Amino acid sequence: MGCCLGAPWHQDLALGCTAEECESCWPRSPLLLSHWDRLQYTTAERRGRWWREKNMASGKVGESEPGSPAEAAEGSPDPSSVLLAAGEGFPPEISLFFSIESRSSRCPNAQLQEAARRKLWALESDDRDVCALFKELSARLLCIQAQEDRFLLAFKTLEEVWKFSTYLTLGYVGRCLEQLLFEQEHWLNCALVEDTEIRVSMDENRLAAIYLGLLLQEGHFFSRAVCLPEGKGGEGLQLCRNELIHVKNTGEESEWEGMSLLTGQRSLLPVTAIEPVPHPFYQWFLKNYSVSFSISQEISGTTSQLIVKGKCTATVDHRGAAWDELSFSKGDSIEIIGFLMPGLPWFVGKSLSSGNIGFVPVQSVNAEPCKSQEKELVFLSEEENLPLLRIPCNGGEQHFATLLGELAHTDITSVYRLDGFEPRAMLPKAPSEAVLHGCKDNQLLQSWEEINSLVTASTSEQSSPGSESAPATWEDILLDKLNDFDDPKFFIDLNAGHMEDADVFEPILTFLNQDSYMPCFQSLYDLSFSFLNTTFYGFSDEDELVLYLETSRNWAKRTHSVWAHVRLCFLLGKLCMKKVKFSQARVYFEEAMSTLDGGLGDLPLLAALYMNLASIYLKQNMKNKFFSLLGKMVALLVCLPGRPFSSENELRVMMYVLREAIAVGNSPLEARVCFLIVKLFLQLGKNDEVLPFIEHLQCLCTTLLSPDSSAVLLDATPILSYLYDKKYLPNIALASARSFVPSSIKGAPTPIWRAGFILQNSSKLLGSQLERSSIPALACSYLKQALHFSCESRAVSTQRTLCTVLSQLYLQHGVLDGAVCYAAQAVAVSRLIGEEEAFESSLSLGWMYLLSSQTGPATDIMGQLLHSLHGTDSVTQGGVVHNLLAIALKGAGQVQKAAENYLQALHKAKETGNKRNQAIALANLGQLSQSCGASQLSELYLLRAAQLYAELQGSQELELESVHVLLWLAQAMVNRQRMEDGKLCYELALVFALKWHNVRSQLCVTEALCHFYSQVCPSLQACITYHEHRVSLAQKLQDRELEGNVWQTLSQLYQALGTPEALRQSLDCTKQSLRIFIDLEETGKAAEAWLQAGRLYYLLQEDELVEMYFQAAIGTALKAENFSLAMDLYEKAGDNFFNGSRHRDRAVEFYRGGAVPLARKLQAIKTELRLFNKLTELQIGLQGYEKALEFATLAARLSIRDEQDAAAYFLLALAAATELGDVELQGLIGTKLANISRAPQGPVDMPGCATYRARWLSEGGHVV
Asked: Ranges for the SH3 domain (predicted)?
């Protein structure tokens, strides 16, 4: 067959088919060489540049290369130049751009884009997190270019390109960037989260060039034939267009070695005759799953025909050539059993006239009346889809239900609470209005009255006689109840006398001789050899069973029990395959096939026979026998939904069929076989091997199904998420789980599974930043969807759990209104469950009210709970309520009642012997005493509480509580001037916080120590040490604002040390704060940081940088049009020179040229007066007396309404006139002074007196 010319390769993929037939053959999956024509020109141009540079180096300037861009402009580019150029110099890097858009409006979100850009600016200086993310995505980060919203990436291997392009197609790259760039506050705004996405884009041609270059570097790959000029092929090698070829680079520029996968022939091929297979998965699969057979040509590429089911009409008369083929007449109606797959030669059909079932040749029927599958790829039934939806037990529904239960667990009914202390809460900066609105707009959050009415209605509905009771848990809804049934069992009796008795074998022969499939046969055909345990018993080893089955087979032959004979041969063949005796197994399977003489009553048996026999032929290289089975075997393999697997060896057959589908471009067949491979891998537990196939299947389903198709889209993201999690790819696992859309398929993962999985993996991303019990904000939206699902399914217990978790989430992130709202919802749901649950939820709600400073509602709740406990023996619960009630009364200012309730709580704790609760009650009493000014009493209570905690040491919760108590005790001791004891308490509190790696507790204690060493007991070195620790804590919490402020404070502390080394460290701290304030767009703080850096350069005597930093500070304020700040900065910059010992004259330009004009513009009279005073003093000091006199006169004119100020400025003028020796002017100024009552007098009778003047005027409001 000669080569085919004409349409481009991607429009004609099936062997021997026309361009019109094959326009839709090839999958529109993410092909890295899909823009081959443009890539040809790009790489040819690169080749041209290389050729010109080479000629210039050798002096051959005018010589042009073959296939140059000039020639390419006249015709199509030369593919050889494409391949060679890509191989010699493919682009080493590629840009990934991102944009944040609204899903509803499809418009950019400028605010979030700017916020993400700022986050990237911050990450530019420390890009470890970004590098780790892209490493997980199989890319190498070269640099971040935040201003251009892009990342510069590189790839070094084909696998990296393959994996990254897969993640790109599945949408994981954008979701991973969302997880990186969006702040915690964003995830709390659920409406915004659902409407926002990050879209990413890359230059596809450049990515294709990288892929092609890496492919050529590897030296051997798979290609398709494009065209082959006559006389250029090797002897005997004939190629057709799109034929699959394995190519090896021999080092020649024009010809490489090629082997046809159709014929197996080898020869040298022109480079112009080939184009690489575009998808990396195909290259990987064809290399790793090679077979010795060539392509069979039994399967063809797809045409415009779709996958169909239903009834079709015979177009010709047909008489079956074999026992398994259906005979029919023209016009007969034939029902398709399963599906009819385009490109396959056979399907299984049933004649509606005769009722017979058999194989039907596709070309003999008209399938137009059939119902098409609307481009559905794998035509899954719900039952067939379940293996992809069922997650292993350690990653399934029950696992995450347990996780949610652990997060919702609280000890509030048995453990007292310290006043205002919640270890898992971040009592915070005020959240944005959008976040507050987001926690109130959920349909589940009604007002308290509506919740109560909902509870009443639900309770009456449950108690009504005819109503169904609501299930207690969601598991009751989701889990199937298995039906037990008894299959026939046969005792293996190998007694010699019985072996010749036909009656002994009659039961098994009768059982196996059914001419149709029975459910009890399933254990005979399945993958796990379950018949060894379910159907036969009484044998000691498999050899005894084989002997029994052999004897049964012989009796089946004698009695002409055809179906029993076939099934016994099949069982014997399976047992031989289990022992790796393939030749003996082949004999049994061939005997079974030859014994069957009519009808396909047992399709699972026939499919198992075909598959097992084909796998043996393939393994033993029996090419002709394998090809004789292939057409019908593929029909049984792919067209019968729900067919169970019978052997692990089926994998080998499916790999061959997938190879054929790729070779001919049959996309539906490729997707279907890929699905079956995934299903079998999962059934065998080969999770490491399944990942490439399931990713490819998801890509096919994502890209091949049109958006408006009504077909059910296969969603393999649950199992993908599980596999990524097991490979410890937390970012990708989280992105995959977030992509999952729960369905109504019974047994499929629910929103509860998704919420639990996201919680688990987002916690992994946080790492050691937060405590183990933290609930990441990213899970908020998914927890709400899980709550909505549990409400719809009336899973009350799960509703309560999720409400509690959401309340804890909002509490931890400082949205106290949201915490109260969901706590109230938990109370409403708890009333449907029981009194204990309602009591616990009510206590939690009251505690939320107290933390949000709503003492009124908290007091009401505690009063009701206390009343409900009357007459009960719940001592501990009574103590808990008294303690919380006391906290509420203290907040309301009722100190006496608060003290009484604390004492009641203490008494009940002593009654039960609970030392922890005693310690908490004592600590709360101590804090109450402290607030009343009773420092000695406070110290006694707190000291006793600390002693009790010392006895209870050992658990994290206890020691974190003791941290809070020690802080109170330290403050009490400081108030009584016991500094050393206070310091000891502070440092002991820090030790406990460090012991448990609790970042927030460490921060609280460190802030107290910073205050102690700066204000109470000053120690510059200790203050520096604790501020440095405070910086590290701010970094762990990713609180950029706090970090910037602490760096600024640390800079001032180092500056106070005064040594050159300390000044350098101060400068470094200032630059750190400057970088952060720029990222946060804190204009004022950034300007102050620029100014501070200039001051430090002045102290370090690096004068060339001083004015540059001063001007940057002023420019920052002017750019923001903050003229008041700019004026202040001008003055401070001038003060730096005015108070310094060098370059004092430079102060003039900052005062006179900058600050004064702005003061006049802003009408800041006092500032202008102060500036003129400084200018006067400065000029006197510089002996510029005329200028000094001028500035003093201007100041005097400005202060004409204030006699005291005017007198002061006249004195300055008098001093300047004295220095000038101008007697007339001195007299005139003296006269002015005489007219001012109570004018201050100064020593002005001799030159130089002005230099001794007190500088109280120039100081003004600033420390100069």
From this structure: 307-370
Residues in the chain: 1264
Clarify whether residues 204 and 266 are in a common domain. Answer: no
The strand ranges marked E within 960-1016 are: none
Number of folded domains that form the chain: 3
pLDDT digits (tens, 9 = 90+) for 207-243: 988 998 888 888 889 998 886 555 444 455 677 778 8
Domain co-membership, 153 together with 237: no
Residue 587: inside a domain, yes or no? Answer: no
pLDDT, tens only, 169-214: 999 999 999 999 998 889 999 999 999 999 999 998 899 889 988 8
Question: What's the rounded Cα separation, in Å, for the pair 248 and 255?
Answer: 10
**Both 92 and 132 in a single domain?**
yes
Same domain, 96 and 148: yes
Please check whether residues 163 and 268 belong to one and the same domain: no
- Residue 898 sits at the vertex; the CA angle it makes with 894 and 903, to the nearest 5 degrees, is 155
Q: Which residues pair with 371 in a beta bridge?
A: 309
Residue in the structure block whose two tokens are 């091929």: 269
Output the CA–CA distances (angstroms, integers) from residue 620 to 291, 615, 655, 659, 1093, in the order listed: 11, 9, 16, 18, 79
Q: Give the residue from 190, 210, 230 where a domain finishes.
A: 210
- Cα 895 to Cα 412, 554, 558, 887: the distances in Å are 24, 98, 102, 10
Domain-ending residue, one of 175, 210, 245: 210
Residue 329 forms part of a structural domain:
no
Q: Which two tokens stand for residue 683?
A: 């059934």
Q: Is 183 helix (H, G, I), strand (E, B) or coil?
A: coil
Maximum distance among all Cα pairs of the chain, rounded to whole angstroms? 153
Closest CA to 1260 of 1164, 1124, 1143: 1164
- Closest listed residue to residue 1033, CA positions, set 1071, 996, 1007: 1007
Tell me, what's the pLDDT at 668?
84
- 997-1047 pLDDT tens trace: 888 889 999 999 999 999 999 999 999 999 999 999 998 888 889 999 999
Question: What domain range is 1245 assigned to?
Answer: 1183-1263
Question: Which residues have C-beta within 8 Å of that of residue 313, sequence separation ≥ 6?
Answer: 331, 332, 333, 334, 365, 366, 369
Amino acid present at 1192: A
